[in-house]
Amino acid sequence: MDMISQLPDELLLRILSRLPTTNVVATMVLSKRWKFLWMFVPRLVYDDSYWHGRSSQFVDRSLIFHKAPILETLRFINLGRAYGSGDLHVWIRAADKCCVRELIIHVSSTCEYPV
User: What is the pLDDT of residues 38-65, one digit of tens each?
Assistant: First the structure.
């Protein structure tokens, strides 16, 4: 077993909370030890500059599977014109169910739809 996997879950979750959510979710393929750890990360950051409008399904699924009792921060960064108010409503409802303490939504200045 590698050295980082021997760290306590609390420390691993703090480390993972500093990464973009796509990277956090990708850790599930590392080993059985890591398979469900991402679901308890206290901070999720979705940055559309990585996906260019193709992330709504990823966001929906990762929010459904997230299991932390309290989500400290939920951030949506650089949302562009590919997202509609329907996506935002779904994500805000999911944030409410996840007991989010801080919700940050940054809409790109090139956005062409009303939020």
Answer: 999 999 988 877 665 567 788 888 888 8
Amino acid at 19: L
C-alpha 88/C-alpha 114 separation (Å) is 11
100 within 8 A of 73, measured Cβ to Cβ: yes
Among the listed residues 12, 85, 7, 95, the one whose alpha carbon sits nearest the alpha carbon of residue 46 = 95
Q: How far apart are CA 69 and CA 98, in angstroms?
A: 7
d(CA 115, CA 107): 8
Q: What is the pLDDT of residues 89-109, one digit of tens each?
A: 888 888 888 889 999 988 876
Q: How far apart are CA 10 and CA 62, in angstroms?
A: 20
Total H helices, total E strands in the chain: 4, 3
Whole-number Cα distances in Å, 102 to 23, 42, 76, 83, 105? 21, 11, 11, 21, 10
3-class SS at 75?
strand
Q: How much is the pTM?
A: 0.77
